[in-house]
Amino acid sequence: MNKQNAFFLFLAVLVVFFILLVGVLIAEGQGIAAVLSFLASFVLMGVGFRLKKKWNTQADQ
Length: 61
Hints:
Layout: H1 3-27, H2 31-60
């Protein structure tokens, strides 16, 4: 497993953690924290997509 794949695996695990945390926080009645957790997962997904696009365009050149 190269560095890029390991990094994307790490990002994916973090996103899954934050999505699971949303459910737990909703069950606990922590609405604001659930929204923040959802936003964190959304931002991490965006970072992953942006990095993948950047690295793919660099590999094509």
